[in-house]
């Protein structure tokens, strides 16, 4: 039932999937879905739980060595999205985009568990670390949406190796490259 729900959420988005439809396609009584999941949010949560712990995905990240971090992050992101949980991740992305509460939840998870880890040890102050991690996130989210959710060509058809080769330098630039001077940032005019 959870696998069916994950596929339906991935294919049609959160709003277009009803509990009745999940039950019908899973060939179970709708009461069974309500019994185990109470409601659509609970079923969605079970169907799209994070398929991997961000700490495990970023285990090779050494806070003392900022260089090369873009490559490590690109590799981790692509390994996750190319894996068997791709449909679950796509469902999560689609549903999050359309829901303020899910967007808020995702923002908190990403900020605390992923971006803080990616920015850890960068040789700058906390505000700049947060900015750099946020800029890197724009690259990851954009790339993931274009490649796996929207499936825009030719990005969707790149090999994993090609995708990593394009994504890693952009991440590296945001994480460790020179940022343009912007009014309001430390050290800027």
Automatic annotation (TrEMBL):
It comes from the Bacteria. PROSITE patterns: HTH_TETR_2. Gene3D superfamilies: Homeodomain-like, Tetracycline Repressor, domain 2. SUPFAM superfamilies: Homeodomain-like, Tetracyclin repressor-like, C-terminal domain. Residues 18-37 bind DNA. Residues 1-55 form the HTH tetR-type domain. Keywords: DNA-binding, Transcription, Transcription regulation. Pfam families: TetR_C_16, TetR_N. This is TetR family transcriptional regulator. It comes from Sinomonas cellulolyticus. The lineage of its organism: Bacteria, Bacillati, Actinomycetota, Actinomycetes, Micrococcales.
């Amino acid at each position: 039932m959870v696998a069916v729900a994950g596929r339906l959420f991935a294919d049609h988005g959160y709003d277009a999937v009803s509990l009745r439809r999940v039950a019908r396609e899973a060939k179970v009584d709708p009461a069974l879905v309500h019994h185990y999941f109470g409601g659509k949010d609970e079923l969605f949560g079970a169907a799209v739980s994070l398929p991997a712990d961000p700490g495990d995905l970023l285990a090779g990240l050494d806070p003392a060595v900022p260089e090369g971090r873009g490559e490590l992050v690109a590799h981790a992101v692509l390994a996750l999205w190319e894996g068997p949980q791709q449909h679950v991740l796509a469902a999560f992305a689609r549903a999050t985009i359309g829901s303020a509460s899910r967007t808020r939840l995702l923002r908190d998870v990403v900020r605390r568990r992923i971006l803080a880890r990616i920015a850890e040890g960068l040789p700058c102050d906390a505000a700049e670390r947060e900015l750099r991690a946020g800029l890197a996130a724009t690259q990851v989210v954009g790339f993931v949406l274009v490649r796996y959710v929207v499936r825009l060509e030719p990005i969707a058809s790149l090999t994993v190796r090609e995708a990593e080769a394009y994504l890693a330098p952009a991440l590296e630039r945001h994480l460790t490259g020179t940022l343009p001077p912007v009014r309001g940032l430390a050290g800027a005019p």
